[in-house]
Amino acid sequence: MEKLEELWLDGNFLTGSLPEISNLVNLKIVHLEKNKLSGSLPKYLGSLQNLRELYIQNNSFSGEIPSALLSGKVIINYEDNPGLHKEATKKMHFKLIVGISIGILAILSVLLLGSIVYLHSLRRKRSNQKTNDQGNSMRMSTKPSTGYSIGRGWHLMDEGVLYCISFSELEEATKSFSKKIGKGSFGTVYYGQMKDGKEVAVKIMADSTSYMRQQFATEVALLSRIHHRNLVPLIGFCEEEHQRILVYEYMHNGTLRDHIHGTHQKRLDWLARLQIAEDAAKGLEYLHTGCNPSIIHRDVKTSNILLDINMRAKVSDFGLSRQAEEDLTHISSVARGTVGYLDPEYYANQQLTEKSDVYSFGVVLLELISGKKPVSTEDFGAELNIVHWARALIRQGDVVSIVDSVLIGNAKIESIWRIAEVAIQCVQQRAVSRPKMQEVILAIQEAIKIEKGTDATHKLSGSGSSKAQSSRKTLLTSFLEIESPDLSNGCLVPAAR
User: Fold this and answer.
1) If pLDDT is split at 50, 70 and 90, which confidence band does 336 have?
2) pTM exceeds 0.70, yes or no
3) Residue 147 within a domain
4) Alpha helices of 178-292 — where are they, by DSSP H?
5) pLDDT by residue (tens digit) across 432-451?
6) Which residue among 226, 249, 272 closes a domain?
7) Which of 235-244, 254-263, 305-314, 441-450 shows the lowest per-residue confidence on average (mean pLDDT)?
8) CA gap 330, 336 in Å, rounded
9) What's the number of domains the chain is made of?
């Protein structure tokens, strides 16, 4: 246990005080958010030399936060702990006064020195002045800003948050941007390998010449603060030569879209699809509830769900091109989306919310069940899209007709039904009737438990007349007829309770 580097115990309903973990000296990342932990934060947390991230929001901790955790070397989120506050001692106040005094003296010294240099420069010839001015122009610091914070309770590390990578380094890493691995609304992505052997995905932002410098800086600051196992991590950036470039961890197995709709010889089995769905749902749920302000993805789709070397899913392209108004409750993207995934309520009110992401994820779930694309006249005929097509069949109690042929005989029907039900809840016409991502995660976990179970649950067959199929039909459709007799608004299942 002493070699443990990451501790992920978020959302496990833990109670009581924080257990003794001072012997875990190699800890780098600790996630304890969304539990019911109480008591004070032990002083030894500030003595863990390798600790870089501490997430304790949504608990009941009280007392003072050890000053060592607020030094800037640790990313800490302590939101929603009403009794928890910063340490305020006379010693700290004394240090603050001394620090301010030293700072003022330093500023006065710089001003004095600057005045001397300025007076000396006046004696130079005009031509030398021009030369010097030209030689000193366009210089900028590559050190990340340390004055940015994200909401109350967040602190930015002084150094080492991200690598500022030069354009020439990226040219070398990508062999002059020779291997394109993706292209989207935000730009083109290239494969690269850094000098230390690390594989990266290099995204050159589209229309980078007009991309506001301050917006890019804010974007980088935000993305550098977001850390979750199911989100593609940003590891560096480049801002030079009129280029705005983001450098991400390379995901070896491409996109979920590639595996569902591409030419991969080995198609995903049902359990693999469920695990990918769970991973992606956890990533989205973290954006909605684990970030402050919360982040709306706004472009959830199978091509934005990437798979690492172990086939674990991570969500990409979150937080890009968001609106920057100071009075917004949520940080979110510029209104955008992809045909087949876009929340139908957006057309009415021009607003996208967390429930818009839920709608899009419901479409992803239907793709995982059916293996079909969201929009296809060939597949859906007059229904035009996967939502209308699947909704009509599921309402009739016929899940077999929408299932990917490679899953027939290889998946348990009750597991398929559980995902079909939550998918239809996600794509309800009205946002208020859709579940939260946490509810979606629970449904997926239930389906995984069913699929892994050793009980005599029916395997899915090509016939829609199985006992499990018909009994589920009776339960679901009778409930729908009671709750939603008027189907003109497209609402085919009741709201998640």
Assistant:
1) low
2) no
3) no
4) 213-225, 256-261, 270-289
5) 999 999 999 999 999 999 99
6) 249
7) 235-244
8) 16
9) 3
Pick from 54, 75, 90: which residue ends a domain? Answer: 90
The CATH number covering residue 47 comes to: 3.80.10.10
419 domain residue, yes or no: yes
The annotation status of 314 as a binding-site residue, yes or no, is no
**Residue 55 confidence (pLDDT) above 80:** yes
* Token digits of residue 393: 């069949």
pLDDT in tens, 77-127: 888 888 888 765 444 555 666 677 787 877 877 777 776 766 666 655 444
Q: What residues are annotated to the active site?
A: 299
Tell which residue, 350, 348, 380, 378, has the closest CA to residue 363. Answer: 380
Alpha-carbon gap, residue 426 to 440, rounded angstroms: 8
Residue with tokens 């030293």: 102
| Structural domain boundaries enclosing 437 | 263-483
- The single residue listed with the structure tokens 């010693």 is 91
Burial 101-131 (b: 16+ CB within 10 A, else e): eeeeeeeeeeeeeeeeeeeeeeeeeeeeeee
φ, ψ dihedrals at 183, nearest 5°: -150, 130
From the CB of residue 421, how many other CB atoms can be counted at a distance below 10 Å? Answer: 20
> What's the chain's Rg over C-alpha atoms?
27
Instruction: Report the CATH number that the domain containing residue 292 is assigned in CATH.
Output: 1.10.510.10
Asked if the structure places residue 102 within a domain, the reply is: no
Residues 335 and 297 placed together within one structural domain of the fold:
yes
Q: What is the residue-averaged pLDDT of the chain? A: 78
